[in-house]
Amino acid sequence: MESLANVIGIAHIAAAIALSNGIFTTFGQAKIAAQAIESIARQPEAADDIRSAMFVGLAMAETSGIYGLLIAIIMLFANPLINTLVNLL
Amino acid sequence: MGLNIDNLWVINIAGVEIWITETIFNTWLIMFFLIIVAIIVRIKLKSFKEVPKGFQNIIEAIVEIFDNFAVNTLGKKLSYIAPWYFMVFVFVYSSALFSVFGIRAPTADWATTFALAFATFVLMLSMGFKHQRGEYLKSFFGPHPIFFPLNIIGELAKPVSLSFRLFGNMLSGTIILTLYYGLTPVFVQFGIPALLHAFFDVVVGAIQTYIFVIISLMYIRNAAD
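Structure tokens for the assembled complex are given below, as produced in the milestone run.
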């Protein structure tokens, strides 16, 4: 029973660590948005092209954040280690 | 509304169990709604006039905006696949809008998003072979034949990342709203969740639908041009 508690506790810590990659994702997205606004201010007539390129760039940068979120969700709700351990005990 | 996808019925056909989950049922609901709208539009199509007015205005505006968007992203030559992506756009966005009413969004299930992304993958390969023929096969051998495994992994990662992006965004909205409904006392569950729904379903849903469609179109254009 104690080992199960350990595994669950460590899984929660691991989920928190996996979510912390949102920090860097946010920094990357902030840089993309800042650059896009700068170039729109410099060239307002190209605003539509820049906006669609910015959305694609934001989505690409967001991918790593989403992967972190999915790993955290798997750790919390569908952890394969816990099922294995429950079967063993 | 919940974190788990409930299993509603199990149908037994010749010893094969078919599970009707919440996702499938909600997909049917949305399909039913969209088909009704399509039939209404089809019936009204006969009475459409030269100068649009009212209902006709809305329909023409939606179709025209999407057509322009598809031609801008794909180019004139490839824009004949735009109707499929119009369907994807309408389905994904209406599934996000339906979750405002407490119906669990079908796109918060990886099966749905992977099916859509896999359709994009198949379309990308077939469009590449149709428009480029041998050139497309040659592009897998990259700058040098030694890059062949890397190119294959890169191609296989496309549907996975495309589906995970939509799935993760929709699931995060579902999880946050479930936590809100589950953790707060009853008297704050009226009014305030409307703001959360407006952000996580309507705004994030619109952005992610747009992203999903535009990235699919870009993959297809890269393969076919």
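Residues 6 and 22 of chain B are 5 Å apart (CA to CA). Chain B touches chain A at residues 3, 73, 161, 164-165, 167-169, 171-172, 175, 207, 210-211, 214-215, 218 (CB under 8 Å). Further analysis is deferred to the final report.
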